[in-house]
Amino acid sequence: MLHDMNLLQILAVLFLPGAWGQSTSGGGGVVVEAKNITLPAGSRAELPCHSPRMVWTQDRLKDRQRVVHWDVVHSSPRYSVERVLDMSPGARQRVYNGFNKGRISIPDSAFTDGNFSLVINNVVTSDTGVYTCNLHHHYCQIHQSIQIQLNVTKSARKEKRYWDGEKTVLVVLLGSAVSLPCVNRRALWRDGLQEDLQQVAHWDFQPPGVRPNKADRLVDLYASGERRDYGPTFAQRKMSVAEDAFTFGDFSLSIPDLKPEDKGLYSCHLHHHYCGLYERRIFRLTVAPALLHEPTTPPRIAFKDELEPKTEEVSADDGSPRVVNVFLPEQRGYFVQHLGYFLATFLLLAFIVFAVIVLTRRRKKRGLEYEMGRSVRRSVISGDEMALDCTELRTFNQDPLNSEYKNNLLKEREMVKECNKEFDGRM
Length: 427
Fold this sequence. Notes:
The protein has helices spanning 2-15, 17-25, 110-113, 231-236, 245-248, 332-381, 384-397, 409-426, and strands spanning 30-40, 45-47, 66-74, 80-88, 91-95, 104-105, 118-120, 129-137, 142-153, 160-163, 168-173, 178-180, 199-206, 216-222, 227-229, 240-241, 253-255, 264-272, 277-288, 310-314, 323-327. It has a seven-stranded mixed beta sheet with strand order 5-4-3-8-9-11-10, with no helix packed on it. The protein has a six-stranded mixed beta sheet with strand order 1-19-18-13-14-15. Helix 1 crosses helix 2, helix 6 (332-381) packs across helix 7 and helix 7 runs antiparallel to helix 8. Mean pLDDT is 76; it is low at 1-27, 301-321 and 383-399. It is of the alpha+beta class.
């Protein structure tokens, strides 16, 4: 049980950094539960804190909630287990073997002073074996066992007591008396306590940035029915714990209408002084933005063919906020608008292509005029006659094909040759 408690405490420290500060500053207590809880603002928070062990049943003197019994295991001549005796606060000790009556006993004040040692008078060889002292507290769920090995010898020089690594070993002389020790002096084995004052439950609240030793106490609950509320936080915010908490073991804290200032660490402390019980449950509460309880009205669009919006409402039976989804139908104007965008883009591209074609043609025309002017300037350099002849030749060559010289190709070729020879001679 202690191993499980330590494991839970380690997990709590890993997942909740603030849990370590609380577990080390409060003077005891094991963290058995640690949770992160996130809820929207305005909702209701229920921080659970349950412990069946805190359900109160008064442990009267004559009940059998506390029991001690001794058992022995014999290994020879054959293996066997034997109940030696048992005892409870409201009954006399019971010895199971008639041979042991008056010879084996435990003190009558065992449940008062916590001494449950087994006394054996006139030890015999058959007493050899491993004895177990078993202490049970059924109400507090406590079970302890102590083992002692008893060996019998006939030589006084061999009497001794030692530890074999697992249990105490006693070697006693045959016919002598021996006391097998079993002592538990915890208050849990004592009577006469004010039981209603032994059980206490309280809630603490630690805002962000506040040290654990400066946490606010919210409420104290006692098994006797006494209740103490501390400060305006618990009273004004109407935080509550059930009145019958100790009847059902439910100490849950209820917080309605959450607000941002409610975030922080909440810790539930359960103390059972009579049973030696100290437990803590830590909750980190985070308040998220509030959810919309009512749908917002969508803007109205002035179209003749306007359609009514369709709404789909999802509601939960557990009282959680409703979520409303609004679906707006598409309008015809949406199609016309996109068609206008398409036509404008097309016209812009057509204008760009037309401008490129016009500029290209103008540049080609300018290039032809430049070449013709360059040829004329070269002809002028060679002289006036050459310019005249070449000009006449060009004019002659540019005459239409229907002129009078169109059928006399030989004459035209001779004139070109003469012109070329005269030009070469002058150059």
